[in-house]
Amino acid sequence: MATFAKPENALKRAEELINVGQKQEALQALHDLITSRRYRAWQKTLERIMFKYVELCVDMRRGRFAKDGLIQYRIVCQQVNINSLEEVIKHFMHLATERAELARNQAQALEEALDVEDLEADKRPEDLMLSYVSGEKGKDRSDRELVTPWFKFLWETYRTVLEILRNNSKLEALYAMTAHRAFQFCKQYKRTTEFRRLCEIIRNHLANLNKYRDQRDRPDLSAPESLQLYLDTRIEQLKVATELGLWQEAFRSIEDVYGLMCMVKKTPKPSLMVVYYGKLTEIFWMSSNHLYHAYAWLKLFSLQKSFNKNLSQKDLQLIASSVVLAALSVSPYDKLYGASHLELENEKERSLRVANLIGFDVEPKTENREALSRSSILSELVSKGVMTCVTQEVKDLYHLLEHEFLPLDLALKVQPLLNKISKLGGKVSSASSVPEVQLSQYVPALEKLATLRLLQQVSQVYQTIQIGNLSKMIPFFDFAAIEKIAVDAVRHNFVAVKVDHMKHAVFLGKQSIEAEGLRDHLSLFAESLSKARLMIYPPAKKAAKLGDALSNLAEIVEKEHKRLLARKSIIEKRKEEQERLLLEMERVEETKRREMQKITEEAEQKRMAAELEQRRTQRILKEIEERELEEAQALLQEAEKRSKRKKKPVLDGEKMTKQVIMELALNEQLRERQEMEKKLLKFAKTMDYMERARREEAAPLIDSAFQRRLAEEAALHEREQQLEIELSRQRHAGDLEEKRRLGRMLENKRIFQERAVSSREAEFNRLKQERQERINQIIQTRKQDRETRRKLIFFLRSQEEQQKRLQEAEEARKREEAEQRKREEAERKAKLDEIAEKQRQRERELDEKKRLEREEILRKSTPVLPKPAEPPTVGRTAEAGGTAPAAAAAAPAPAKFVPRFRREKIDGAGQAPPETDRWGSGSRPDDRPSDRWRDERKPPSVGGGSRTSWSGSRR
Fold this sequence. Notes:
Helix content is 74%, strand content 2%. The chain is mostly helical.
């Protein structure tokens, strides 16, 4: 790790390494400087170093290095100059975004260049080979090689910045800006997986923020600015989620907004709530939950009507029509009919949860809340005046489906209204946050509702109806779709319908005596009869019940006596418990008093020690105050330079501190903010007066215009009514004429039907016979195949068994041969061992014989040995008279090696054994080299101290 005396030296060293192409070494040098503990005081040079550091990290795509460096730099400038960290992070994100865009442009340019390189050939041979090998196109390869690494680095950059700024109250705006840019990145490049991860990251940051509330620089969500930033971030998250089609993530974003508001117990601004409910309508529509969709539209309508002063009458009509049609699209029956208890409980919890999201109560009270239902929302539409704002077609449709009883032509009257409604819709020009309103999306649900209403009304009038007549009454669907709708309604106990396809009829209203409708009539009838009977025969006065009570009086007295005895015992127990508690309290008080006395003594000792420590630290504090005074004077001079006021405050520079100067600066900002707020309040009051005057002038004009419109609509209604009557008469006359004209063809139709039925019966019988013959043939073929297969399997099994027997015989023969070889080998080995044993016995006998001969020779020729201290000389040997002068002259000195043949000459008095060469076999022909080698290893028999020790041991 390189160390530098000054940070400028590290920056200069990094630039030198960059100039020679060693970027990795330059990055490592700057990383060592930033993470070092020596440079923890912020200075301007560190900011320049960080700019160069992040440039290198982006150039080399080193996200881990960038994260470590930014974390260390945050520690350095957190309390001194947080704006420097903001500038570094902005520069870092700008570089990463710029390089990612540059890589994408290069890939696009490369693809365009490849497309126009050869006008006569579609692709180059290299591209064809690569496409065959890799299975991807040229654009995919260029994206994978150029664009994808930089996009990964850019995504890692966003994650790093969010992680660094997640709990910093001074950089909340930068955190929000980074989150918005990350959302736009996911939206622009359709990165759904990264978007989900980003939402989870932001959600975890908020959860940790609430979990660890004792952090030093934790953002305060109760502040309006912080709350607005967090809300804007989640609203942007909601918008991007809906644009990407991630509806589950969008719903979780809705819950995030609601949860954030529940934390601070404050409802957001109406502009944000409009976006909230607008996206909520889209989410519920995509999930096919029409009830919650209608409630969301109702809340959106209320917000727009209350707070949007620029909303035109046409846009208000369009929004109100959408609210009414959404409410009508809700299914008229309960889809949880017949569900289990667990399903009902889960649906209740889910409904309560969604009701909180729709109602947006930050303090929900579940005990007084009504359940969301179709009837309740329709009643709210009427009570809140929504029906007065809708178009005439929607109003007529509402009355037809909810209040009219037209069992024969209900669907026929609804169809033209639906055709007109399907053409309405468009973008709401005066409310940009409201989603585009298209009333045609409600037409399928309204057609289904009209079908259900018609079935319900027809079942109250008719018991049987032909399938053809019912199909004519419902022009929206064919009978298969009508039957499916009817089956679903019957399953949920909405209507009672039975379809008989054999009779081409539909049976309606098959209700038993316990049916819901009859049960209500019978209960009302019974109540009416009971009231009439009471009026005719009033009830007699009730007799006194004292006699009945006297019979149970003894039992009551006995119970009361037992209760009083039990109460007396309880009171005694309570008194004893009270006395015990008093004694316990006295004991606790005594213990506390002793502990307090002990604590007082310890506190006195600590106080004396603290005074000593205080006197010691006063000197250090004085030095710190002097240093802070110098810094305060410097800050005061800078503040005077930056101040824009003409009149400067008179300050005593010798007594000013940093804290006082910061308080003065904050007071100046507070004074300017208060002046600005006063100006804004005065301007708002003026605008209120202007708006009130404008409305007073416009009120009579609006009233007169409304009266004129009422008159025009009444005349128009009269004309349309007359026109409708005339058209009905003409259609009736035409229908009668058509019926008379078609009545002549009934006989021809019957003849044609009989001919067609007979021909189809003959064709059916012929096909049935052919099918039976084909089946018989297939059965016969399969029998033959099974027989052939069975024979083949038997043959194969026989062959396998024979092969297995042969293999077992061969293995048995091989085992016998192996055992025979083992026995022969054992016999041969035993013979060889016996021969070897005999040979060893003969060698031992020869060795013993040699040993005996040698001992006999040594016993016969043992000489008188000299003293060990005196060296053997020729003169002393002659005086001893032991050997001849030639033998004495030939005797070697004690320090020299004596060969074997000379030792044998000295030891033997007779003739010496014959000489042999070094590797000779000795005097005996049967003396082997191994025996000679063993003899040479025996201790010497003559010469010096060795001879003395050997002779001594022999004696």
